[in-house]
Design goal:
Blueprint lengths: L3 H24 L15 E5 L4 H12 L3 E6 L2 H14 L6 E5 L5 H14 L5 E4 L19 H16 L1 H6 L3 E6 L17 H8 L9 H20 L5 E6 L4 E2 L9 H14 L1 E2 H4 L2
Parallel strand pairs: 1-2, 1-4, 2-3, 4-5, 5-6, 7-8
Helix pairs in contact: 1-9, 4-5, 5-8
């Protein structure tokens, strides 16, 4: 007769194995990049390239010999990421760390000045960086904009427009704006773009931290910006794309998600959540 302890142990193990097989089956249907065309001579600029999706994107491009500019707020983390990639890919493409703080227009302008001095053209601009901060923290950019509006939208808006000449010189070139389907939860109030009312409610505990209207609004602004920019750049040779990476594990929402959220979401995450690396495969 099978001991009860063995049965108790076998049931959860069997469930985990079944979930693993389901995940493996589902992953076969996920989109994959099938090309390995050499990108030598192409320059890619990625904001927030030191972690998450930006880092995995950089790895994939370096593997194909592209020159990649790591535009990061923390230059030390950018250099650390580059060192780790170089250990994995000693013969990969060139990697250049550069400091860029999207919460500061002055930093953006200084960054662009260096880019224009050192690079005649940019083949691809990937607007990947982003923040997700609980509204109760009431964080602002250097110019006083609500942090999600300022970094996720205005920072990339300003950066992109300042780099249009470099992108046009590389035509055919492209701009990729990383958005999110959370834009569907957006409720933009043009009389309160800085969300003062929502932030005050959040401070009083009337808004759940994981329901971040600031983040959702910024992602809808990303989509609007990409569509308007695509119209503006039609017939210039610069294509504009916006994308959602899907249900993906990164550290973006580390300030909003509590430990018990992970437990509640674990079964769904095991079957549906991609890693940052799988997003870029």
């Amino acid at each position: 007769m099978v001991p009860a302890q063995a049965i108790y142990a076998a049931v959860p193990i069997s469930v985990l194995i079944a979930i693993g097989f389901i995940r493996k089956w589902r992953s076969r249907k996920w989109g994959k990049c099938l090309t390995d065309t050499c990108l030598r001579g192409k320059t890619y600029l990625i904001t927030g390239a030191n972690s998450g999706i930006g880092l995995e994107t950089a790895k994939a491009l370096v593997r194909r010999k592209a020159r990649v500019i790591f535009a990061c707020r923390d230059i030390a983390k950018a250099k650390q990421a580059i060192n780790e990639i170089r250990k994995e890919q000693p013969t990969g493409g060139e990697m250049i760390p550069m400091q860029l703080d999207l919460s500061s227009f002055e930093s953006i302008e200084s960054f662009v000045d260096v880019i224009k001095t050192g690079f005649h053209k940019i083949d691809v601009l990937i607007n990947n960086a982003g923040v997700a901060v609980p509204l109760r923290c009431d964080e602002k950019t250097k110019e006083g904009f609500e942090i999600h509006l300022g970094v996720n939208h205005l920072g990339h808006f300003y950066l992109t427009n300042l780099l249009l000449d470099q992108l046009k010189r590389a035509a055919p070139s492209r701009i990729v704006v990383v958005s999110s389907t959370l834009h569907e939860r957006a409720k933009i109030d043009f009389n309160d773009l800085n969300l003062r009312g929502e932030i005050e409610r959040a401070k009083k505990g009337q808004v759940k931290a994981r329901h971040n209207l600031g983040y959702s609004n910024s992602k809808l602004m990303n989509v609007y910006f990409a569509r308007a920019l695509a119209d503006k750049l039609r017939d210039t040779g610069v294509d504009v794309y916006t994308c959602c990476p899907g249900f993906c594990y990164t550290n973006l929402f580390r300030l909003s998600v509590r430990w018990y959220h992970y437990l509640i979401m674990l079964p769904v995450a095991l079957m549906y959540m991609k890693s940052a690396k799988q997003v870029n495969n």
